[in-house]
Amino acid sequence: MPHARTETSVGTYESHSTSELEDLTEPEQRELKAKLTKLEAEIVTLRHVLAAKDRRCGKLKRKLGFTALVGLRQNLSKSWLDVQVSNTYVEQKMSAALSTMGTALCRKLGGIKKSATFRSFEGNPKEGSRI
């Protein structure tokens, strides 16, 4: 059984059965190959155009005083701000604050419970007196 090799998106070729090719006529195969060649040429052209625009962008950024470090710092600052205002972050901070407050309250109440004043309220009331 004949095999054909086709290029994948990462530029490698994979082998497969040519049963699909057997269904195409010779003129259809030539037309598809011509379209493929034209499309590949367009891709190369677009890559060159994109590279040129990327270089131009870099030059403009340098003229404006932007450096890679400044851009990175701005991106990190924005990302950190996004994290801080996100619901998850706010909920975690609120949860931590409430937990800390609860722990402090429990410690304080524990201290009050051990105090002599509190113990005097805990004791049995004297007979005949009402609180």
UniProtKB/TrEMBL annotation:
Pfam families: TPD52 (PF04201). This is TPD52 like 3. Residues 1-29 are annotated as: Disordered. The gene is TPD52L3. The keyword Coiled coil applies. GO terms for cellular component: cytoplasm. The keyword Coiled coil applies. Keywords: Coiled coil. Residues 7-18 have a biased composition (Polar residues). Belongs to the TPD52 family. InterPro entries: TPD52. It comes from Papio anubis.
